[in-house]
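Input set for joint prediction.
Command: fold jointly, output tokens.
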Amino acid sequence: MAIQLQQVSYTYADRSMWKQTALHGINLNIAQGSLTGIAGATGSGKSTLLQLFNGILKPTEGTVQVFDITITAGEKSPKLLPLRRRVGLVFQFPEQQMFEDTVEKDLCFGPLNFGVSPEEAKERARKAMTDMGLDLALLERNPFRLSGGQMRKAAIASVLAMDPDIVVLDEPTATLDPVSRAELIALLERLCREQGRTIIIVTHRMDELLPYADSWALLKDGGLAFQGSGQELAADPAILERCGLTVPQSLRYWQAVAQRFGLAGEKPLLTAEALAERIAALLEERKNAAGMEEKGNGHE
Amino acid sequence: MNQSYKDTEAGEEPAVITLAGVSFGYDPEHPILHDINVSIPQGQWVSIVGPNGCGKSTLVKLLNALLPKSAGEITVCGHTLQEETIGDIRQCIGMVFQNPDNQFIGQTVEEDILFGLEGLCLPYEEMKQRLDLYTVKLGIDHLLSKHPGELSGGQKQRVALASILAMKPGIVILDEASSMLDEGSRDELMGILRDMQAEGAYTILLITHDPDEILASDRVLALHGGSIAADVPPAQLFRNEDLLEKCHLREPYPWRLARELQNRGITVDVPASEKELIDTLWPYNFSK
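tokens >
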């Protein structure tokens, strides 16, 4: 397991009269090398949960274990530097974390802070740019002269440059155009499948991640309402409604077709292309069957 | 494709926003927007679409002089944009930005929403009434005493929306203001905008990539390479594959599914629901 949470609760301003419990009693396992989606209504605790993964927040109750590093509520926490090195966090609007005057300096800042040599930092910056599908010529550019989509990708590259084993992203596709969004999801999937990194994505656009995610965690009012595969979700989309989420259209259409043609239990087809292909095949089957019948009738 | 789109109903309304030969650029050699000509009638709901970096946000920021145009003429609510009219123009435009953190000023949600209303010199009763109305509409009435910093991304976005909508500006401009809302909340926001539009007093400009939001609007302005690549009703945009690709857009899922089915020789209209699709497909078998 890359990340294990046991009975974790988190309360903001715990010792003041404004205290507010954001998470309670969370038991969550995230497998190494998996692609996990986290969803939940606004204010359900998604961003708080992410910040527990690299020790920005420490649990008020329970235990957070990331690889061999354990943070237990009420105990003195271990050194967090190794944790931060292994878990890269990409916040909402990551472009706001850029500050240097060239993209290269921005990308090298993290690695240099973790004691990497300047040469290696530059090398990592180049690799991260390539991983994100960005042109190396942009390294010399001022980050604030990039387009919105490029800036977002460069900001994610600056986290990748730290070579984290786990990459956690909070709404990485918000404000990107649909094509850039699909590209980004594809890039993240590649990082997961080809480089074996553990990718965790918070999203409210479940439909764009559904075809790719290995597992899902759904939050409701600070509690974990569901953990399981996309297939399990597809079998019982009512779980989503119970979490205050809308069932994505791709899932609704799949479910309707699956019910009509008795395909429940199959791996859900969650892209329009795959579903159309399947419907075409189904219609063809029926047509052939009907044709046979007609022929049969003709002989009578 | 460059023909101007005329809405027969709204076309009779006077223009509330007019841009004539408007350009903008930091460097005259490389304009970001070039020779934009567009007229938006009172009461229309317009989606502004296009790939990241095509100048959508720039275009709306020119309207209230958050950015200075480099050429052309802009008229908003009867005022021609110049030094002396900036104040008047800003009074009739309410803008919600991409990142809600950029527009908070109050120490609490309540204070933040009231700040804008105080600026309008409204009587206290009226302020209170609007505060209640819009915080309930946006589902943030339980957050009034919170500091904006304590809110989640989606909650912040709702507060930003409430504070602008409560001011009832004649022109509402939302720059991807629903990017952090889940689908259900986005539908609610669309409902609020639809109600506002029905009142007739509001002109709505929405910068968006969301197919369902685009579908809800009357008209789509597609920007590409610094000029207006298309000015069409939403259905026309979603039927034009080249234009979708050019603007980095996707059609709504049912449209996409219908197209994929048509590509496979199955003739179906865009289904209104999954049930309708099944009902269409089923008789399809037996009509053969």
